[in-house]
């Protein structure tokens, strides 16, 4: 695989995990594994500057985006960035060294050490002491307004206590769910035969993004910082914590104000001993410069402050016996090896299964059935086998042959050259079938209510469906006999299937489960071609001409439509009346008809979402990257490299005022 292919593959993989985590409230890999992917991409981009993207376009230098449809967008008065992560004390000392270059006269720097809460970031706005707004992080510049979903939570008073309130202040924190509440909700779902939620953080994220409110789920909030504040009277981060407490808001029960990085490290070690006593999940520590003036002087990168860093605690580990190796099959046919373990207590839970990732990882670690292995819970979410202990290996142990194992199990699969995963070659594999259909019906795709994993399992097991199109031939009589179903629930499912036929084209494309094609790419493709019929006939070269569609994704799309089974599926979906074609939005009449506009920087009064809507309403198309095909660049404050590239290419650059004159 060439460096270009590796870079495209990493960008696509990171984008997929971003989509899962930020938009779908789901997670397949640990934070550490995710950061490893990003670091590998950074290394490749630095080694290949000609292949690098502008900072705002590469996932290594931008904030994840949790915005979803259905919520009003609100522009933060001050950017709400994420934090850089570190996993070792040496990297923490490197952070201190970088700051000392900015403040060379200081022998030791004043730090504040706070518990890092594993929740959902939120910004609360108070005007003259009264609560007016709650907004998610979004893309760091604007987020989803979730005021109505959070109003009434015990931790968010309508009026701040005391009398010394700023005229206007954004107070930042994390929304979380206790383990007890998480267990209560999952028990209810288990009793109803519904799919269980994976962890409290993902459930919290999904809860705050429910259009119908938070449905009686008990959420809490901890606040620890501020964004915009007028007037700004605070001198230190410690002052902010005290003010938050004095206003009757909840902040962390334990923080450390220390001098120097060694004292900060001691505080982190103390926090590691205390963290399991908190009622919120704590996966690390945040180390911040305490002095606000120094924070301002240190400044920011494109995605994170230079004056703060997150230290992630090492994953908890335990020894146990690997009894056997089994496999798990994903919706795209990827075959993932799974370790079947003697149950062991780890991070407060009993672990009996763990991921082995792929064939190469098994070979590299030389993991064999019967081995004593070290298991860890990285990020306290997904167990994985870290290594085997050869000294404790049975005498008759043999290296594990993954290909032979698949053959013995009757699993028809192949490994494509240059890829780590084996993939199912048979379209009729029931596990993959379930995964494909569950993905199709999910909230992120066709959003078919009452059609979760448990229901799909029943439909497949009873041989009522074999693919996505079969869903649309189900009748009331077919679904009524399902477990946990009665007249009303059966009717609701049939009605939901009928409603889903009118979902926009991009949701259908996303629901087809084409490898590497996420929600944003589906939107770009739908907007460009307007129908599945046109998409099925385009070449790889034509696809890569679309901004954001790389070679690997284009080849995946082309290969998917070249498969006769997939073409038959599309025809059946068409015959059942699904929305397989729609008007191409960029053909609207208007002053920007047929024009491509790239946004960069922060505009004086328009959010990115508002500017994009104005571009599309004027017949134009908003793009994320500057090229020779770009007609205009709409530039605001801190425009950066996109502006520079536009100037080099001689592309017309518009201010917000000039843009308004053009489109209004």
From TrEMBL:
User: What's the top EC group for this one?
Assistant: ligase
A molecular function annotated in GO for this UniProt entry is: metal ion binding
Q: Which Gene3D superfamilies match?
A: 5' to 3' exonuclease, C-terminal subdomain, BRCT domain, DNA ligase/mRNA capping enzyme, Helix hairpin bin, Nucleic acid-binding proteins
Q: Which reaction does it catalyse?
A: NAD(+) + (deoxyribonucleotide)n-3'-hydroxyl + 5'-phospho-(deoxyribonucleotide)m = (deoxyribonucleotide)n+m + AMP + beta-nicotinamide D-nucleotide
What Pfam families does its record include? BRCT (PF00533), DNA_ligase_aden (PF01653), HHH_2 (PF12826), OB_DNA_ligase (PF03120)
Q: What positions constitute the catalytic site?
A: 116 (n6-amp-lysine intermediate)
**EC numbers:** 6.5.1.2
| Keywords, sorted A to Z | DNA damage, DNA repair, DNA replication, Ligase, Magnesium, Manganese, Metal-binding, NAD, Zinc
Coiled coil start-end: none
Q: What organism is listed for this UniProt entry?
A: Rubellicoccus peritrichatus
Cite the BRCT domain residue spans from the record: 587-664
Q: Name one GO cellular component term.
A: cytosol
Look up the record and name the cofactor or cofactors this protein needs: Mg(2+); Mn(2+)
List this protein's GO terms for biological process: DNA repair; DNA replication
Q: What is this protein called?
A: DNA ligase
Q: What does this protein do?
A: DNA ligase that catalyzes the formation of phosphodiester linkages between 5'-phosphoryl and 3'-hydroxyl groups in double-stranded DNA using NAD as a coenzyme and as the energy source for the reaction. It is essential for DNA replication and repair of damaged DNA.
PROSITE patterns per the UniProt record, alphabetical: BRCT (PS50172), DNA_LIGASE_N1 (PS01055), DNA_LIGASE_N2 (PS01056)
> Which family does the entry's similarity section mention?
Belongs to the NAD-dependent DNA ligase family. LigA subfamily.
Quick one: which residues bind NAD(+)? Answer: 31-35, 82-83, 114, 137, 174, 288, 312
Q: Does the keyword Repeat apply?
A: no
SMART domains registered for this protein in UniProt: BRCT (SM00292), LIGANc (SM00532)
């Amino acid at each position: 695989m060439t460096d270009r292919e590796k870079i495209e593959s990493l960008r696509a993989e990171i984008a997929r995990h971003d989509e899962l985590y930020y938009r779908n409230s789901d997670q397949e890999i640990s934070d550490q594994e995710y950061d490893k992917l990003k670091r590998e991409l950074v290394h490749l981009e630095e080694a290949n500057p000609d292949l690098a993207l502008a900072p705002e376009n590469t996932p290594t230098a931008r904030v994840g985006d949790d915005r979803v449809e259905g919520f009003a967008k609100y522009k933060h008065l001050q950017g709400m960035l994420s934090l850089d992560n570190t996993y070792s004390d040496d990297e923490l000392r490197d952070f201190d060294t970088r700051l000392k270059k900015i403040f060379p006269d200081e022998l030791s720097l004043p730090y504040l050490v706070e518990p890092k809460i594993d929740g959902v970031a939120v910004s609360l706005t108070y005007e003259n002491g009264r609560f007016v707004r709650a907004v998610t992080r979004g893309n760091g510049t604007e987020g989803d307004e979730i005021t109505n979903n959070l109003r009434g939570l015990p931790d968010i008073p309508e009026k701040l206590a005391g009398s010394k309130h700023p005229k206007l202040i954004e107070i930042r924190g994390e929304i979380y769910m206790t383990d007890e509440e998480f267990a209560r909700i999952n028990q209810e779902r288990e009793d109803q035969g519904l799919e269980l939620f994976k962890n409290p953080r993902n459930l919290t994220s999904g809860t705050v993004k429910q259009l119908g409110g938070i449905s009686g789920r008990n959420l809490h909030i901890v606040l620890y910082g501020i964004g915009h504040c007028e007037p700004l009277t605070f001198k230190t981060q410690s002052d902010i914590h005290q003010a938050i407490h004095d206003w009757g808001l909840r902040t962390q029960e334990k923080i450390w104000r220390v001098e120097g990085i060694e004292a900060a490290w001691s505080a982190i070690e103390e926090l590691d001993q205390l963290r399991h006593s908190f009622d919120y999940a704590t996966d690390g520590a945040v180390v911040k410069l305490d002095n606000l003036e120094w924070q301002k002087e240190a400044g920011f990168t494109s995605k994170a402050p230079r004056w703060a860093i997150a230290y992630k605690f090492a994953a908890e580990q335990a020894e146990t016996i690997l009894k056997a190796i089994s496999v798990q099959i994903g919706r795209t046919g990827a075959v993932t090896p799974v370790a079947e373990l003697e149950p062991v207590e780890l991070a407060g839970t009993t672990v009996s299964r763990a991921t082995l990732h792929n064939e190469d990882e098994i070979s590299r670690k030389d993991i064999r059935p019967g081995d004593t292995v070290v298991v860890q819970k990285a990020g306290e979410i997904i167990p994985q086998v870290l290594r085997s202990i050869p000294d404790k290996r049975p005498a008759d142990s043999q290296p594990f042959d993954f290909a032979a194992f698949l053959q013995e199990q009757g699993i028809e699969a192949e490994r494509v050259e240059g890829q780590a995963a084996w993939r199912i070659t048979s379209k009729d594999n029931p596990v993959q079938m379930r995964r494909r259909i569950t993905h199709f019906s999910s909230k992120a795709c066709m959003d078919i209510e009452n059609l979760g994993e448990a229901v799909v399992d029943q439909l497949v097991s009873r041989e009522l469906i074999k693919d996505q199109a079969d869903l649309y031939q189900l009748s009331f009589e077919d679904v009524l006999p399902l477990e946990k179903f009665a007249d009303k629930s059966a009717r609701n499912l049939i009605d939901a299937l009928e409603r889903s036929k009118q979902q926009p084209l991009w949701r259908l494309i996303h629901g087809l489960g084409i490898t590497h094609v996420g929600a944003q790419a589906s939107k770009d493709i739908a907007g460009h071609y307007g129908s599945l019929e046109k998409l099925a006939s385009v070449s790889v070269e034509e696809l890569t001409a679309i901004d954001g569609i790389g070679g690997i994704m284009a080849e995946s799309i082309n290969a998917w439509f070249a498969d006769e089974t997939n073409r038959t599926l599309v025809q059946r979906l068409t015959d059942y009346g699904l929305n397989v074609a729609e008007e191409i939005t960029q053909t609207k009449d208007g002053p920007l008809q047929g024009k491509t506009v790239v946004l960069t920087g922060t505009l004086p009064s328009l959010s990115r979402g508002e500017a994009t809507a104005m571009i599309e309403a004027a017949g134009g198309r908003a793009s994320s990257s500057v090229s020779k095909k770009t007609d205009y660049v709409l530039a605001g404050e801190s425009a950066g490299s996109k502006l520079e590239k536009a100037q080099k290419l001689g592309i017309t650059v518009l201010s917000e005022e000039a843009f308004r004159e053009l489109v209004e």
